[in-house]
Amino acid sequence: MTHKIIRVTGGRAAWKKSKSVPLTAEQIEREIRALAKEVNLHRVVFHFKNGNGGGCAYPVIPNIANLDGLRRGQWSKLVVVGGGWGWKTGWIHTLAHEVKHIEQFKRGERGSERPAQAFADWWVKKRAGTPGGPALNTPLPEQV
Ligand SMILES: [Zn+2]
Q1: How confident is the model at residue 1 (pLDDT cuts 50, 70, 90)?
Q2: Where residue 94 sits, what CATH number does that domain have?
């Protein structure tokens, strides 16, 4: 699928997902929009895909990243959210973790893991109980 551009606090973000990812478009957009109230996500591209069991945040968009449907020059950072957990909690935790790295990059800092894990733990708990939010009856990933 091509990317979808959405309005978020502070600007625009874009996302696409693999068919096998067990999140709906509504869930993805709700989480990105909610996270954008905590972290500036303007010009950030999100790729949701299965297979690598984790995530990665890129301070610049790699040349090899497939940005079909987007103008490369309009976008500045990339978040890849992998799954393998099969549960919403794992996806949302990974997403929040990588979003914290984007914040670190935008501040000119290197990605550091402890704040990213703490933010993701906090985020999943905060979002639990919201409509469409994560279930907390599944274990959180130890390390992403
Ligand atoms: Zn990390």
Answers
A1: confident
A2: 3.40.390
